[in-house]
Amino acid sequence: MKFKSIFSAVILTCFAPMAQAATLDFISAANNNERGFIDGSVVTLDGVDVTLSANGSNYAYFDHGNAGLGVCGIVTDFSIGGTTNRCASGASDDNVTLSEAVTIAFNTAMNLSGLVFQQDGHIPFSDSSTELERTLLFGINDGAFGRYTFGGLQGLSFTGVFSASFAFDNAMFDPVSANGLTRDAQQFYLASATVSPVPVPASLPLLLAGLGGLGLLARRRRKAS
After folding, report:
1. Is residue 35 part of a domain?
2. d(C-alpha 200, C-alpha 47), whole Å
3. CA dist list (Å): 86 to 64, 69, 73, 153, 224
4. Would 2 be classed as within a structural domain?
5. Is 219 a member of any domain?
6. Is residue 138 in some structural domain?
7. How many structural domains are present in the chain?
8. What is the model's pLDDT at position 88?
9. Residues 53, 58, 62, 67: is their CA dihedral positive or negative?
10. How many Cβ atoms are within 10 Å of 60's Cβ, its own excluded?
11. pLDDT tens for each residue of 125-148
12. If 69 and its partner were Cys, which of 14, 45, 85, 190 is the partner (CB 3.0–4.6 Å)?
């Protein structure tokens, strides 16, 4: 490939419009279609493909009624599909509770922020300062879990995220990084999150400048010859 073609390709790649931040609205998705998911299922939310999974024999679960993304231990009628993939009545819960975890994953590195949670009763944690101080476990990219308060985690941002896992704060997931907190677990749903692709590295302008210099050098050599 000629240098000019390479340079043009790099220019187009680096200065292509950046994708806008997307909102993963699990409440709306669940209200529109309550259902469970076999591990590895992909849903598209605000233009972003999200892969869902849960730990053990559990299933990621969209619970309607302004709840969001939770976990169900027994989901019926997976072979039929659609809205029949419901949590078995009286056989299992549908929020993240004792010994349960749910994971969202992406096919590219993301910035993750704006985490919002719902309590077991389908109400926001922000409605109660006491509940905001209770704890859950959180980890990214299959790393170790850390202990966070709901209020603290809702205010944090993470970069380079390929996967994010949310778990009930119980001894099953020890050892964890306690972050100075004592276990004070609460059941929950993931209500929403904000994601955006990790931006172009700051070093790329230097690369482009270097390529430009090489182009000028090549042009001068052609003229000299």
Report:
1. yes
2. 20
3. 11, 13, 11, 29, 75
4. no
5. no
6. yes
7. 1
8. 82
9. negative
10. 29
11. 988 899 999 999 999 999 999 999
12. 190
